[in-house]
What does this fold into?
Amino acid sequence: MRRPSDLRFLFGRFYLVRRIFTAYVRTAQKLGRKPDSLSTRLDRPLFPDHMVPRAVAEIHVRSFCGGFDIPGDLVAEIHEFAKTERCFRPGHEGETFLFEEVQGGRTPNGKLVALAQVLDPLRCPAILTVAQDPVLRSVVRGYLGYEPVRVAPILYWSPVSRLDPSHRRSLNQTIDFHYDVDSWNFLYAHFYITHTDEMSGAHVLIPGTHRKKPLRMLLGPTRASLDDIEQLYGAGSAIIIEGPAGTGFVEDTSCFHRALPPIQSDRLLLQIRFN
It folds into this structure.
């Protein structure tokens, strides 16, 4: 989890503050402030236009919307790119390595690794195609209320390993329920580039919790224990998102969510952060 500036981290977790920020950015853009330079240039969208109003409404209510699956040729291109580009452990950019060099949960230098982030995902044309998709951008614009100011693709591997939970936490693997405060306002698109299920790092979320948190959780740490989550929202409230390579969904990650640790196969995930 990234920590933005102190003010954003303190106040960006409140839904009302995010709405105020939306009004500010919308006004600024009308007065000439430019949106992100990664502008849409595609003639043929990856997703049907009719998805837009349903997706926006569903994210408002349930925190996420599925159905943004990308075609196999793009999946294959992204997967090949991730195998041939150098990676780094988040927070340790000094050591780079190819993913195939990770053995037994360790880098070639013997360092434990739970996440291997690809250095420059924007070098992959297929990732640009997904990030620039006009229907996806319409969903983002409809939810945020303005054209995104920044668009940041992130591509990373979660290697299969038997790391204990304390090591995973120390290596920035978000195996505990938490909510994000990445900026004043934000939305994420997620795409599984490998088949992903409960045994290979599936994403888990509590629907509707982007707007339903007790005050103590808004004022305190952004993490929550499984017991707290079940007491607040009920046992069985979590949704596990599983699917074949190409499965995509859009999420307001200010809801409670986490990643299951991959223990049978590696996971490759493309995230695109819009804010």
Observations:
- The mean pLDDT is 91.
- The chain has one domain: 6-27+45-274.
